[in-house]
Specification:
- By secondary structure, the chain is mostly helical.
- It has a domain at about 35-180: Alpha/alpha barrel (Glycosyltransferase).
- Helix content is about 55%, strand content about 5%.
- The protein has 14 helices and ten strands.
- α4 packs parallel to α6.
- The two termini are about 20 Å apart.
């Protein structure tokens, strides 16, 4: 199993993180995932990685793969990880071309699902090809990363266009949000959150003023509609009459923790471009308070690890039911332990500790690392068994998409390596 190394020893943590990323996580994905004939990555695997369930390609995952391959090419160029930079950049290009040539639809959205060769296909006969603005925005994310690393302006221009189109539909209330449609009369935190994260990537890649305004608008929405003190709601009701509902009361600690690093990074991206970034949600100290609350709210005192959902006052989600199918998901899966909150939380807690020096963040990082590296990794040369029950046993379930996700774990590990390298003396960066 990989080591759970304390943030108090950043050089050792950087080395252990790089070993796990290259020798285990990437070793599995690069051996099993790439489709070098058509472009893209195969992600429809069983939770243990032992069986490929389909050769279909979800646009959501393909855009993320472009980002990962482009950023790994950058990391290889900078000497941060031992990786074949040329092969990574080639895979980023091939996947981006697959999306450009097959997934982009005439209305500026993307098809949700592609066949292996890129042919768009509906989720079910008679349904639309487009089903989710998240697929659009993950495609945007990939194009922005490829533009930044390759210097090819075409990808940056497409990223700007996709972002503007998606942000416009979100603002108009017409954006589709499969696999979890947002109930009428509620607003979902996931929408402004992803606009912050993706918008910052576009700002970094192209310097787009429009993308910067998208980021700032999304931050203002979070402040106005979702933030109360150090608490961030997952869904905000339009009417105070719905404040007692399960939808309004439930929290997603992993989302909040992931959003904390999105927000910190977005403020830094805007400032690098000379754009005023005055929101309190760009302040590392305030984000640290939000992150600590989310970690404490989500922590399972009985079994360890982060719960998928919690009530705003702690414990199992509760509140008046509205009949929305998302409520069933919350009730049925609230105590599962998923790969992505743990990966994202480790990076956020380490990042905010580096930014603030706060000991409580270091303690939370080390506590979560001990659990995560004991429970999730599949073993030498393997990735993670990503979906676990409350006690940590593997579950054969679908979460969001019927895929084994190549993104959150590798991204969090890579970003951790990058940030630790920035704070270490030159002689300790390798």
């Amino acid at each position: 199993m990989p080591e759970a190394v304390s943030i108090a020893d950043p050089a050792a943590l950087r080395r252990a993180t790089a070993r796990h990323l290259v020798d285990d996580v990437l070793a599995w994905w690069l051996a099993n995932g790439p489709d070098d004939r058509h472009g893209g990555v195969f992600t429809c695997w069983s939770n243990d990685g032992g069986r490929m369930l389909s050769r279909d390609k979800y646009t959501w995952s393909q855009g993320r793969w472009v980002w990962l391959m482009a950023r790994l090419a950058r990391a290889g160029r900078l000497g941060l990880v031992e990786i074949d930079r040329v092969a990574c950049l080639d895979r980023a290009h091939r996947t981006a071309i697959l999306l450009r040539d097959h997934a982009l639809l005439p209305d500026g959205s993307t098809a949700y699902l592609l066949a292996q060769d890129g042919t768009p296909k509906p989720l079910a006969p008679g349904q639309d090809l487009h089903a989710s603005v998240f697929a659009d925005l993950f495609t945007t994310l990939g194009f922005a990363a490829l533009a930044a690393e390759s210097g090819e302006g075409e990808w940056g221009e497409m990223a700007e266009e996709l972002l503007a189109n998606a942000a416009g539909r979100i603002a108009a209330g017409t954006a589709r949000t499969e696999p979890y449609p947002i109930r009428a009369g509620f607003r979902g935190f996931s929408l402004p959150m992803i606009l912050v994260g993706v918008g910052a990537e576009v700002v970094d890649a192209t310097g787009s003023a429009a993308a910067a305004e998208t980021v700032l608008g999304a931050v203002r929405e979070i402040e106005a509609d979702f933030l109360a003190g150090d608490d961030i709601a997952e869904m905000a009701p339009a009417s105070a009459d719905d404040a007692d509902t399960l939808l309004a009361r439930h929290r997603t600690p992993g989302h909040v923790l992931e959003a904390c690093w999105f927000l910190l990074r977005a403020g830094q991206s805007l400032r690098r471009r000379g754009i005023a970034a005055e929101s309190r949600l760009f302040d590392a100290g305030i984000l640290a308070d939000i992150a600590i609350r989310a970690a404490a709210l989500g922590w399972d005192e009985d079994q360890g690890g982060l719960l998928r959902y919690a009530d705003r006052d702690g414990g199992a989600p509760r509140g008046r039911r509205t009949g929305d199918r998302y409520e069933d998901l919350v009730i049925d899966t609230w105590d599962t332990k998923l790969w992505w909150p743990h990966a994202e939380a480790l990076y956020t807690l380490a990042l905010l500790h580096i930014e603030t020096g706060r000991a409580d963040l270091a303690a939370w990082h080390d506590r979560l690392a001990a659990y995560t590296y004991r429970v999730f990794p599949a073993g030498p040369g393997g990735e993670w068994v990503q979906i676990r029950d409350r006690a940590g046993a593997a579950l054969d379930k679908t979460v969001a998409l019927p895929v084994k996700d190549p993104f959150h774990i590798a991204r969090a590990l890579l970003l951790m390596i990058e940030r630790l390298a920035e704070v270490l003396p030159p002689g300790q960066r390798s």
